[in-house]
Amino acid sequence: MFSKILIANRGEIACRIIKTARRLGIATVAVYSEADKDALHVEMADEAILIGPPAAAQSYLVIEKIVAACKETGAEAVHPGYGFLSERAAFAAALEEAGIVFIGPNRKAIEAMGDKIESKKFANAAKVSTVPGYLGVIETPERAAEIADEIGYPVMIKASAGGGGKGMRIAHSRLEVAEGFARARSEAKSSFGDDRVFVEKFIVNPRHIEIQVLGDKHGNVIYLGERECSIQRRNQKVIEEAPSPLLDEATRKKMGEQAVALAKAVNYDSAGTVEFVAGQDRSFYFLEMNTRLQVEHPVTELVTGIDLVEEMIRSAYGQKLRMTQADVKLTGWAVESRVYAEDPTRNFLPSTGRLVKYRPPAEGIFDGVTVRNDTGVFEGGEISIHYDPMIAKLVTHAGDRLTAIEAQARALDSFVIDGIRHNIPFLSALMQHERWRAGRLSTGFIAEEFPEGFSPLVASGEIAHVMAAIATHVDHVLNVRKRAISGQLRAQGTLRFQLRRAVLLGKQRYDVEVVGGGAALDIVLAEGRSLRVASDWTPGEPVWSGTVDGVEMAAQVRPILNGFTLAHRGVSVDARVYTRREAELAALMLERKGADNSKALLCPMPGLVKTISVHVDQEVKAGEPLCMVEAMKMENVLVAERDVTVKKILAREGDSLAVDAVIMEFA
């Protein structure tokens, strides 16, 4: 076995690979840019080598620097993770020339399947059913529009070397093709160093299902079941699961065998993924093959019990697969949520800054439910503008789908992140969504269910009752501590009591009676509904955990003036618990109003101003572009929300702006 490997990546995937290497007794080498000098993967590795400035094009994407780091440290092999150089045949060739093993498929397999244009040509020649499209390189937006007209709208414009949702645009008209073509090429160039794009038919109401394959250098290839990746936003996967709620055993077998046949045709000899677009009738078409480890690989690992990183290392070393197809068994259900540094209430724009507080849920197996958190960050660390905004991948595994979803919801409720904006409220809301829980999925799910974007959920119904009960318990614990400190409750902790309180969740008032005297409180709502609440929560803990009517619950607790903010199941609300008289007086207080920013364009996220599309005194119609801001490898065009006249432009092209910085003012 290898004695030392280098990980040519960063973030959570680098940390993930280091964990397996450490278990196998293999020393690890991390590479890092100047922006990552204090990163977690640098701390975890046995050695670390600086490879350049923050920009990936000057560090993580420079093949020569990776090869030099291998020679300097004596690393025998390189694991590329995903993204960056993971699907670059030139990287595998450079390593081979230097006598270093590439922990991934052979170079010819990457060339045949790693390029999305060439892979479709190869699949067509092998008579694999593919999505209709034009497989050649397209040079101009005019040519792209001509091809789109021939194929029929809508179409997908995709980067040939793309992945992870970068360099992808859906177009419903010639005008959208022109704009999408420019954006896709620009993102592809900055993310992958390759601006080639192609066009294919976009299947309406499709599902995204992929088959995990695993091969060795002795001609053996097996499939490890499927993953459903239909919950996407801007072609970026948000939630994945294994297995898929769509497939039956016959369809799973047919897709798996087709994926294996395709892999064998190119002598595939590592972990890889064959992606399919599937109809609701279980029809499916080959989409592409990713010749690398996928971001969502943990769900496959949890339902199969197979460590994919370990198998990649063993295959690269020349060992045979340790299992046959008959040995592969899918057990239970796994759900993965991608936790991103982005603001879901601002159209998911990236968020950067310091992680003032980072407390993920506890990992392990609890009553048959597994909780796993793959991450590359730590409390006090920085979320950089230079890289992908992923913070962590939270995965739960249980005996069935709904139990895994409930476990995911509890884990999200227990995931505390402060200092930046993040998408946990959105993920929590998804876990409660009836359509998601029923498995009625498509890649258009988020666009269809959140057409106006995501707005914070409002406490109502059962969730409101639970939150009122939790708020009452938190307030009671705080009051007990205050009175104990002042000496008012000496030796009275077990006495039975009955109190009348008013719980304000935002502006909504719930009158309750609190009955206690033991380890639990009985919270009686005005309509007679009673909830028994038990918890060992202590003041200062960011997560309240306990039971409500015997059901395990979690909620985040953050102190505010005269109360606290509760976050639970996608609902975040300021909670205040008063006596009835205090509640009456509080209702008479005047509300403080915020500043009026209606006549200014604010930068919605930290980013770089790429273009200013208007000039002073220009009249702009609603929907017309004002400027473009780039952040975390994504280009975001900011448009006028209404008809305006530009009064003043305060930012210039090339400026780096903080969130809410004023870009321009309107008359």
The Cα radius of gyration reads 27 Å
The domain tally reads 6
At CATH level 3, the topology of the largest domain is: Glycoprotein, Type 4 Pilin
Q: How far apart are the first and last residues' alpha carbons, in Å? A: 69 Å
**Strands of the largest sheet, in order across it?**
14-13-10-11-12-15-23-21-20
Corresponding CATH architecture of the largest domain: 2-Layer Sandwich
Note poorly predicted spans.
none
Q: What structural category characterises the helix and strand content?
A: alpha+beta
- The CATH class of the largest domain is Alpha Beta
Shape: globular
Please explain how this structure is put together:
The structure is a single chain. This protein is of the alpha+beta class. It has six domains: 4-103, Rossmann fold (3-Layer(aba) Sandwich), CATH 3.40.50; 132-201, Dna Ligase, domain 1, CATH 3.30.1490; 207-331, 2-Layer Sandwich (D-amino Acid Aminotransferase, Chain A, domain 1); 337-448, 2-Layer Sandwich (D-amino Acid Aminotransferase, Chain A, domain 1), CATH 3.30.470; 461-586, Glycoprotein, Type 4 Pilin, CATH 3.30.700.30; 600-666, OB fold (Dihydrolipoamide Acetyltransferase, E2P). Helices cover 28% and strands 34% of the residues. It has 17 helices and 40 strands. The chain has a nine-stranded antiparallel beta sheet with strand order 14-13-10-11-12-15-23-21-20. A hairpin with a 2-residue loop joins strand 36 and strand 37. Helix 5 (107-114) crosses helix 6. It is globular and about 80 Å long. The mean pLDDT is 92.
